Amino acid sequence: MNTQTPDDAEPTLPLLRQERENVVDFGGLCPLHYAPMHYPTEVELYEPSFDPHSAALHENSRQPAATVQVKVPLPCGHFNIWRPLHDRRAPVAARLARFFVGSPALQRDGRVVSPNNSTWDSRISYSSADDEYYENGHVLPVINGWKHGTLTARSLFRKVEHDWMMTYLAPEQGNSHQQPLAVWRFNYAESRRAVERFHAVLGFSLFAESAAVEWCVRPLSSRRFRRIPIHVLTPEEARYFSEIDSVDSGESHSDDSLEQRAHIIEQYCGQILAYRGPSSEYNDYVVHSVPALAADLTKYVEGEYGFELAVSFVPASEGPDAWQKAQVARQSLHHPISGRMREGEDALSRCGLDFRIKLREDIVVPPVSVELTRALTATAPEQRLCMDGPGCNFTICVRDPENTVGSLQPPIGAHEHVLRAGSEYFAALLESDMAESSSKQVELDGMPYGPVRSAIYFLYADSVPREESMDLNDWIVLLDVASRLSIPRLHQLSQARILGEVVPDTLAALQGSSAEGSYKVPAAYPDLETIELLQGVAADTGAHDLAQALDRLVAYYPIEVCENRIRSSPVGEFDPLPPHHIGTHDHDPGTRFAAGRAQGLFGRGPFGHHDFDLEGGDPHGPVQVPLMAGPVIHPEIAPGFAHAGGNHRGIHDGGILGRLLGNWRLTNIPNNGHADPPAPQPGPVPNIPHATHAHMPPPESDSESD
Questions:
Q1: Neighbours of 692 (CB within 10 A)
Q2: N or C end: fewer C-beta atoms under 10 angstroms in the chain?
């Protein structure tokens, strides 16, 4: 087994190795939709609930009818396109509070929230012993069935060994046509919060040297997957990890051992750590991932809104039961997770798959520095200093070239120690041997007087005067002043306000029926000319966070439109297969047809075979081909998406963004591989071609028969 690979190593599986045509190209990984299940097999943790304190009686009514304010927690993102993700700030539904009796997460009013000191904002855990997914450390299932929690999967099933009391995900027995694969997708673009850290427990086991498991990751703004290296610890390195059964826990917890362990983890950051297990009479070669050890995969997805994580299997080439020599999420049936309320999040440490994400705002505004707080309260702790107030010992004169009346630009009085603590420019000036340092006076040439006065006022009051009346241009000017005076907090605040002016709050723009769980309105984004203008401003003022946020905005706009159009379509028509097919590995709804790129299935656009021209050229026209069981999307090209003050062909002339804003219709065609087309569904449904049409690609050996 190759234990180390370069960071830019390509995946082995051709379906993952190919480069996408664009960011909305699923590259053959057809998303599968599964109808929502219900309690007790699946629990909606964040269902709509109401606040009893907001109840009021109707006026002019003979009978007291109460009106309440319903609080529906909006998602911070989506898991595998359809399922909403909530961060730890969202309280659990009130009807589930009885499951958390005695838990420190239970508040007095009956609401259930995760501890505020938790490291992760979003967390998805899968237990193969229970075959359930859990969210944010709550030991209640949100998804039942391993496949229901994937974006797409093929040629895999959950194997239960009742003799060994073990369970795991493994390739289908006897399958030699398709390489087994599973993909998970996370997207937090709705909340405009980027990934700050990503750690994951990716448990796997190998019992043959020819078997392999390969993990790959792809930021949604990238068109390529990258392979995640696996490092097999040497016996000397493995002795520092107490998670390994053969390691003496007392020795591994000494100070020197902990230091060596931290050094090894840091050295192999971005890799999955594994170890060689002892051989047995059944297996000479045994490799396991280190149990419950989360790999730091931040470098692959940092600063992104979302990503896809894929795992592919290579079964052993020879030997008995070669198909089960590569396993993922191997767990003991003796230690299930579900219902372990007393253990809480500790129970999730036994999960074979655990995805942990820390999010951050697009632009993080730092708190007021401790030095500035001390400077403002140095003389009288109960009374803060103020600009132009008593005790000012430094004068700032501004020569505004656009204001010729000097009497309207009075000098600004400030305190020297406040300027030192709040402005890097003034700190360097006052510590130098320049004349301004000794005269306690400085003249600022070519700067606007009003924004300079607002910047100095911000140091004292931590607020911008008349902030509610400021427009985009005012914030751009203030950003330039904050950059030239090196006021870090004001610099970050100006960037955040500029981004907020041009991009309305995504969550506020979302609408939809909470009962259906649909969020139908994509966020409103500015036109490309405005973005280009702001990118120039960011470059001139050193606003790196603003520049990165604008780049994310451009990259994720078509992705968000695509996913919103998919979610807003009738989900009731998504039935992958009859119920008796679900859960059986020999009748997999995701593998009845090949979804390979070579066949052209789901090759371009969200699902269909479309030749999108990124420069705005006319498409070759929608070409329907037989698709796998599940969604079929038919685009009806709408008029181009116009924006003010621009002439970009990619949008006006029906380019990719214009097409994504068209009317998408999702329907389920269970028999679309047969010669006879199915009966029409309500609404516009594409005509399914016969299997003898000339434009159909010939089937390949990689596909499975019906």
A1: 7
A2: C
